[in-house]
Amino acid sequence: MKKLTEENIRFIDRYLDNSDVVYADIRTEMVDHVASEIEERIKKGDTRDFYFIFKDFMLEHKARLLGSNRKFIKLADKKIAKAIFKDLASVKGILSFTVLCILFYVGYNVLDYKTFKSILYVVPLVMLLFFGLIYWIALKRLKLNRFSAVERIGFTFMVIFQVFTFVFNITRSGLDQSNVLYLILIMGLFSVLTLSLFKVTFSMAKFYKKRFKNFNVS
Amino acid sequence: MSNSKLYKGSLNTIILKLLSENGKMYGYEITQKVKDLTKGELNITEGALYPALHKLEAEGLLDVEIAKVDNRLRKYYKLTESGTKETVSKLQELAEYIKTMQNLVNPKLA
Fold first, then answer.
1. Does B8 contact A at CB distance below 8 Å?
2. Which of A125, B10, B50, B74 is the most exposed place for a label (fewest CB within 10 A)?
3. Sequence ranges of the domains in chain A
4. Residue B110 lies in a domain
């Protein structure tokens, strides 16, 4: 039975990549599905060139394939949310939150209120820059593979960052020294969430590295 | 999938059952197997199959193995221990459902 060549497979891979199926873990499976179907059509007697069979298949199935890509991304988001919640609800997560709040409280007692407040406002921005830098190094400099659940964490972080910025902006004017505990709790929560995101990022990256360790995916 | 609404609820059970019988399978193989077994009556689309497989995997019912086959990577699915248990319970559930429906629509055959 005629099998598709490496060049054919690369063509399918590039086509899907250009059609927004950018995550290697998802694309790998789609490439195999498309290639298997084309080989089946050849086996059943389609003698046309690969590109014509491919074109026909994509005309019939592209919408469904890309639709399932969106479902995969939703599933990846759910997976991340579940992992973060599990981490936050663990003994380590609760301990980290408590320690961070204590540290912020100590900082409040050591520094004057104005400096302390300024530092607190800068923390999320520094974390955002740090997170962005890690992703930039991983994707642009080291050219590491793009895996769905790892990359979507960046999106989750942006959502959390926006929510905190929004909360701060609407409560900012009413915040004074009398409700510093509220400020400390909010910052403790943000910091523990960010820590959890880092942990989940590394564990997901490890998971994919293990799964694809013997294979070259792009 | 033909008669999509009727079959949709049974998709996970179909996947689990096939994996319990065949050990490990990949996505396209599952679609073809279902087509063969139902003589073309049931056609599982990729849009329904892969999200279902990923969900079952996320729930810990399926395990994944990657292999290089014919110039490309192939993702094989197999049942985990809890997946095997879930298959038994899902099949039982489905059998009871079929029996109940039989009683409702055709009591003489029940």
1. no
2. A125
3. 6-76, 90-211
4. no
What CATH number should be reported for the domain holding residue B93?
Answer: 1.10.10.10
Q: Smallest CA–CA separation between A181 and chain B, in Å?
A: 39
Q: What is the reported pLDDT for A218? A: 54
- Whole-angstrom distance, CA of residue B79 vs CA of residue B21: 10
Q: What is the mean pLDDT of each run of 10 residues along chain A (218 residues)?
A: 88 92 87 95 92 93 83 85 91 94 89 81 80 77 72 81 79 71 86 88 83 67
Taking CA–CA distances from A213, the nearest residue in chain B reads B66
**Pair of tokens at residue A23:** 């995550």
Chain B residue numbers touching A71 (CB-CB < 8 A): 47, 50-51, 54
DSSP code of residue A49:
-
In the prediction, which pLDDT does A92 show?
A: 93
Nearest to A35 by CA among A16, A18, A63: A16
Query: What pLDDT score does B110 carry?
Result: 58
> Is the CB of residue B66 less than 8 Å away from at least one CB of chain A?
yes
Say if A79 is an interface residue toward chain B (CB within 8 Å): yes
The boundaries of the domain holding residue B51 are 4-105
Phi-psi category of residue B104: left, alpha or beta, with phi > 0 → left and psi -120 to 50 → alpha: alpha
